[in-house]
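Changelog-adjacent note: as of this version, every example in the card shows the full chain rather than a window. The one below runs 155 residues end to end.
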Amino acid sequence: MKLTVAAIGRLTRSPLTDMVMDYQNRIDALARQTRLGPVDLRELEDRAGKGPDAEAKLLLDVPAERRIALDERGKDLTSLDLSSRLGAWRDDGVATVAFLIGGADGHPASLRRSVDLTLSFGKLTWPHAMARLMLMEQLYRASTILAGHPYHREG
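Full-length structure tokens:
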């Protein structure tokens, strides 16, 4: 199952970018075993500056059978819950899942209503670069859980 991470805005070269790429490589290395990946990273821009509704259209135009929006109002899943959901979609034959990261003003209600899942990394506000990094780490963690790898440990 192909994974797409679609985000509004571009990351500048930084240690965070290097870490995002490292997790992408790790996920892709496990993809044959887990059938989760490869990861396609897409950076999108609202060049006209029309705001959240225009950004939502860019994000929803990314081809995917399932969409997950990252939003503070979303569900607070455990890593096991996320890996289970991804594994179930994979086993049901879903070919592509897109994770959607909005711009500075977040996702409009219309986008949140049109996705399959709204996922929260807590009620705190995170910089977009950190949100991308945390998502990539969780996708790697989900991959290792599905592969039976000891990276993830429960309590």
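Structural remarks: The chain has one domain: 2-147.
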